[in-house]
Write a structure and sequence with these properties.
Layout (H helix, E strand, L loop, with lengths): L1 H19 L17 E7 L13 E2 L10 E3 L4 E4 L2 E12 L10 H4 L2 E6 L1 E3 L9 E8 L6 E9 L9 E10 L2 E11 L6 E9 L1 H4 L10 E7 L3 E6 L2 E7 L16 E9 L13 E13 L1
Parallel strand pairs: 3-6
Antiparallel strand pairs: 1-17, 2-7, 4-5, 5-6, 5-17, 7-16, 8-13, 8-17, 9-10, 9-16, 10-11, 11-12, 13-14, 14-15
Length: 291
């Protein structure tokens, strides 16, 4: 009888442990987990339907960077059923800044053929150290370029520093997950990169349903090093002894703000044959710092 009771208790504990894990295909409505030695200093669970909380996020607008195809606008970002949903849509939008014959790519296009959203915490929330965790599900359609990244609050690009916690796009036609750090060089607008490129097939080979699931990206950052993880697998790390700008400053010893966006085209590839909308879903963002 004692043996049977022990087996039942073990089985019950096993079921309880399994039950604690969120469904990888659905939003996770559990409260933020406690991390030993750390304090939750900021989070957004996206549990209120409507627009992203304006106390947390501002929008980028129009044509912004990298000669991408999308027109950034607030219409493409919304919170539904516990998720931030960013939609990349195939739609024609008049460019109010169009100038015929202009050599500026932002002005030379009379129309945008795609729209999307890019939101950021700039001017609202920024952090100098700690851990940032993001649970998200990415659309890997051709043309999609979703990202989770940070920029320094001062110094301009790239001397202000950039951390790409997650990027997905195509490299020579191969779908790829990236984890990168960038800082300044002697040349204006030319970055020094410490990057990691991992083919998507490395993940789908062991889990054919990987693309359908939510995953957790994490940045650990202190005054000595930075590390990027995907589902607790270390992707990339760098020592802050290496990330020095030519003027001697270190862009990663200052606060950074967070960006969540999905570009269309550019490195993402040609979206012409892909479905519309392309969907990028973020379940939650949580920031922890040492107590």
């Amino acid at each position: 009888m004692r043996k049977i009771l022990s087996l039942l208790i073990f089985a019950g504990l096993s079921v309880a442990l399994i039950a604690q894990k969120p469904d990888p295909f659905k939003a996770d409505f559990r409260k933020p987990v406690k991390v030993k030695g750390m304090k939750l200093v900021w989070n957004d669970e996206f549990n209120t339907d409507g627009k992203p909380d304006p106390a947390n996020w501002i929008y980028e607008k129009g044509f912004v960077r990298n000669q991408e195809l999308q027109w950034y606008q607030s219409d493409n970002a919304s919170c539904r059923n516990g998720l931030l949903i960013i939609e990349g849509r195939r739609e024609k939008i008049v460019n109010p800044g169009f100038v015929s014959g202009s050599g500026d790519w932002r002005k030379s296009r009379e129309y945008a053929e795609y729209s999307s959203s890019s939101i950021q915490t700039r001017g609202l929330h920024q952090w100098q150290s700690g851990t940032i965790e993001i649970r998200a599900r990415i659309d890997t359609a051709c043309g999609a370029w979703p990202a989770i990244w940070t920029l320094g609050i001062s110094g301009g690009w790239p001397s202000g520093g950039e951390i790409d916690i997650m990027e997905f796009y195509r490299i020579n036609g191969v779908p790829t997950i990236l984890a990168n750090f960038a800082w300044g060089t002697e040349k204006r607008f030319v970055a020094k990169w410490d990057d990691l490129k991992k083919p998507l097939s490395d993940f789908t080979a062991s889990d054919p349903e990987w693309v359908k699931k939510f995953h957790i990206w994490r940045l650990d950052r202190d005054h000595e090093s930075m590390r990027i993880y995907l589902d607790d697998q270390l992707l990339n790390e760098v020592s802050l002894k290496e990330t020095i700008n030519p003027d001697g400053t270190n862009p990663f010893l200052q606060p950074h703000y967070l960006l969540l966006n999905m570009a269309i085209g550019g490195n993402g590839g040609d979206p012409g044959g892909s479905h519309s909308p392309i969907i990028y879903e973020v379940d939650w963002v949580r920031v922890y710092q040492k107590k």
